[in-house]
Write a structure and sequence with these properties.
A hairpin with a 5-residue loop joins strand 10 (about 225) and strand 11. The protein has about 300 residues and is an alpha/beta fold. Helix content is about 40%, strand content about 20%. The chain has one domain (about 10-300): Alpha-Beta Barrel (TIM Barrel). An 8-stranded parallel β-barrel has the order 1-2-3-4-7-8-9-12. A two-stranded antiparallel sheet has the order 5-6.
Amino acid sequence: MNAPVFSVPDTIGAAARGLPARGGVGLKPEHFREILATAPDIGFFEIHAENYMVDGGPFHHYLGRIRERYPLSIHGVGLSIGGESPLDADHLDRLAMLLARYQPESFSEHLAWASHGDVFLNDLLPVPYHAGTLARVCDHIDQVQDRLRRRMLLENPATYVEFAASTMAETEFIAEVVRRTGCGLLLDVNNVHVACVNHHRDPYAYIDALPAEAVGQIHLAGFAQDVDAAGEPLLIDSHGAPVAQAVWDLYRHALARVGPVATLIERDNDIPALPVLLAEAHQAERLMGEALAPSIARGFPCGACA
């Protein structure tokens, strides 16, 4: 099956240009006024779609003003791409309205399921990797891209359990989804670290096995540490701590594979002061510059510099 080609209308030309290859941070209500007052030097902001699926209110008031100044990424957490149930058509319609309103440069969702029937579980749960799940996930992504009239990015998951029914490696599954649907990849480096530690795998080999050319955005975040019932280390994708050094090191490796790409600092719990998040975003930009320097020295062209 060949990947579909999407005809992007002129009304969403901004989305076709994509996010700048810079650091960004999640947009939090705690920082709305400070952002407008200080206009920080940052590449982009990202919001969770489900926080803005209402017609009006203060969130839209501030987002509208901030969107006038900065590129925007919208990240969904409720489509349940991996779920067994059909996609929620009402949810997808509300999402389409939100994207039409703000024309984000990027939209992404998770390789996970979060609902079953009429029950929303408020969590991102894993899927078994086999032919049946592959067909269902691809069908759901095709529906999303057709409805939104844009290419979406699919995020690799942070997982704590695996299914005995799986017949494919996670990276093999993701690569095949990308090939069949034409979607892009949101490479969450923290999720790679968390899942590979939990399942005793090599995170560097995981990144090497992904389709580097499909990566349209990177996420970095902090994690919490625990132990499982057997006393083995268990990492939790908490988004409540600074980016760990092991994740920064893995990010360097990812940049060597994919080149400079828009990189978000995710922080959803224990939100620090805005300058703390900006410092992490600027650290990502410094590492992008380091990754780019050898190519420039050798005289190779750089797509991010165009």
